[in-house]
Amino acid sequence: MISLKKVKKAANLIRETIIVTPLVHSPALSRQFKGEIFLKLENLQKTGSFKIRGAANKILSDINKIGHAGVVAASAGNHAQGVALAAKKAGVPATIVMPEWASITKQEATRAYGGDVIISGQSLGESLEKAKELAKEGRMFIHPYDDPDVIAGQGTIALEIFESLNDVDMIIVPVGGGGLVSGVASVVKALKPETKVIGVQSEACPSAYNSLKKDRIVTVDSSLSIADGISVKQTGKFNFSIIRKCLDDIVLVRESDIAAAVLMLLERKKILAEGAGAVPLAALMSGTIKVKKGSRTVLLISGGNVDSPLLGRIIRQGLINNGRIIRFSVCLDDVPGALSRLLALVSSLKANVLHILHHRSARNIPIYSTIVELEIETRGPAHVKEITGNLKKAGYEIDI
Asked: Is a pLDDT exceeding 80 seen at residue 237?
């Protein structure tokens, strides 16, 4: 467990490097979940995530031990940017090893923050090995989560939460390698032990979840996830010791829940959260975590670094899962006016046509028929039911 004294020291050290991010109350989410819901917006932190806190504390705590070669880290995204900017502000060189599949956007952002980027490794594990090799040349290695100074830096978030809102019943935190949740939990259990700290992971990579259930660190296979920031196959050793002692529970959420949460934050709160940052809300929306009526809950929105192409896919998946976009096909007589009559009916039902695909040569249809596929935007499941009901009433046989 990280001592409160160590976290407070970290807060003083990194004060000039980070910003105190807002803790905002959400009336809409409070009404929906029947409790007072607050959002800790680390997506507004410098570099777009909480990671700069731990990186800055590690560098500033050991500034006298850092040689002329500077520091080295391995990361595909947020840790890379956090280390690069923290090192720049401390006046030391930073070498960042990124895997070959790291997005160009994140590579360029890391360079813009002052990092010397080396592309090496098919996996993050291979990139870490390369970083450790470079550390042997005199660079100080900064682990993304399994380091007491890094954990203490992340724990400063909990200090800020209690400074703004003393009476907190539950804090919900994303969990990857465990640096963030172990820092937050250490502070919470020191200041207000009755406050629950619940971790959330994606079902695609349940490393900490499985480790806690088996009471030992396990390595998991991971699938591609929109919460890539917490797709860590093995929890850190130091982190796990804190998780076992201080965490009240860890839950899992599905990819569809995460997409829906990203969409809700964007549409309802105008907050851009990456998949990892949206998992606390996903846990509420899916019913995996229940809020006690009238209680105060803080959702830790850990970051907002999401590539534009991926954001588009997440939004689309969220719209589909929420019934806001549907696709269906219908067989029409291939005669003038057949398509226009179908579109007129769809229009009268106040649905917005996004795409049309017209097949005259589809297999197993009559010669004088055609298959039309429509993708339409709706208001939600009730609207979908109204549209499909009216189409069937009008004699159309539709395949959704």
From this structure: yes
Q: Encode pLDDT of 295-331 as tens digits.
A: 999 999 999 998 888 888 888 888 888 788 999 999 8
Q: pLDDT over 70 for what percent of the chain?
A: 100
* Beta-carbon contacts of residue 266 (< 8 Å; ≥ 6 apart): 272, 273, 315
* Fold for the domain defined by 4-50+147-319: Rossmann fold (3.40.50)
| CA separation for the pair 82, 86 (Å, rounded) | 6
Please determine, looking at this structure, whether the domain spanning 52-141 carries the CATH number 3.40.50.720: no
3-state secondary structure of 211: helix
Instruction: Please state the rounded mean pLDDT for residues 103-107.
Output: 88
Beta strands at 398-399 and 325-333: parallel, antiparallel or unpaired: antiparallel
Decide whether 4-50+147-319 matches 52-141 in CATH topology.
Answer: yes
Q: What is the largest CA-CA distance in the chain?
A: 82
Name the amino acid, one letter, at 142: I
Query: Domain map of the chain by residue range?
Result: 4-50+147-319, 52-141, 323-399
Two tokens, residue 257 = 């829940």
Q: What is the value of pTM for the model shown?
A: 0.88
Domain 323-399: top CATH class? alpha beta
Q: What is the pLDDT of residues 248-264, one digit of tens each?
A: 999 999 999 999 999 99
Per DSSP bridges, beta strands 140-141 and 170-174 are: unpaired
- Name the residue among 201, 191, 182 with its Cα closest to residue 160: 191
Lookup: tokens for 275 = 């998949």
